[in-house]
Design a protein that fits this description.
With 194 residues, this protein is α/β, with parallel strands linked by helices. The chain has a single domain (2-189), classed as Glucose-6-phosphate isomerase like protein, domain 1 (Rossmann fold, 3-Layer(aba) Sandwich), CATH 3.40.50. Helix content is 56%, strand content 13%. It has seven helices and five strands. It has a five-stranded parallel beta sheet with strand order 2-1-3-4-5, with helices on both faces. Strand 3 (115-119), helix 5 (126-137) and strand 4 (141-147) form a beta-alpha-beta unit. The longest helix is centred in the first third of the chain and has 38 residues, at 2-39. It is globular and about 50 Å long.
């Protein structure tokens, strides 16, 4: 068991390091994109399925509240997860189709200049693809965090950060670390730092 524990930690650390080395410039571009959008009065809408839904909620909370305890409070940052309202999710799924759960919310709540931030391990979920297409239709900038080569979603988003792995837990570990880093850097860029 000890060998397995150490092996899994090493896999996670190695994948994170390789991802960071390959994607630093893209990450910086994404931070600038999000910061400029927020400075213009726009918001971030995050979404995903399963574990990625939980990550969307987690990161929205980090933006609205704060990533870490600091000596002083900072203004909340406009972010919401499209994965949290069970009445909306179930009514859309029941009345039309599950592939519409995010795209319908984007059409209802999104405005030009907002950020649509999709999180997926495969990039092939129909509801994610439809949401990205709808986001483009109304003028949102799109960010996709994916794994396994990025799938169709990776070809559609404006900014694509793909974790080059087929191992779902390791992909998710990189994605949540990446999301924390993006949030931290956006806060710094907006001058809400200590």
């Amino acid at each position: 068991m000890q060998d397995l524990i150490i092996e899994r930690f090493k896999e996670s650390a190695d994948l994170k390091t390789a991802f960071a080395q390959k994607n630093c410039e893209k990450i910086i571009e994404v931070v600038h994109l999000i910061s400029e959008s927020l400075k213009s009065g726009n918001k971030i809408m995050l979404f995903g399925n399963g574990g990625s839904a939980a990550d969307a909620q987690h990161i929205a909370a980090e933006f609205v509240n704060r990533l870490q305890k600091s000596k002083r409070d900072r203004p909340p940052i406009a972010a919401l997860a499209l994965t949290t309202d069970t009445s909306i999710l179930t009514s859309i799924s029941n009345d039309s189709d599950f592939s519409n759960v995010f795209s319908r919310q984007i059409r209802a709540l999104g405005k030009k200049g907002d950020i649509a931030w999709g999180i997926s391990t495969s990039g092939n979920s129909p509801n994610m693809i439809k949401a990205i297409k709808n986001a483009h239709d109304i003028g949102l900038k799109t960010l996709g965090l994916t794994g396994k080569g990025g799938g169709e979603m990776g070809t559609l988003v404006d900014y694509h950060l793909n974790v080059e792995s087929n191992d779902i837990p390791r992909i998710q570990e990189v994605q949540i670390t990446l999301s924390h880093i993006i949030c931290e850097l956006v806060v710094q860029e907006l001058l809400f730092q200590d």
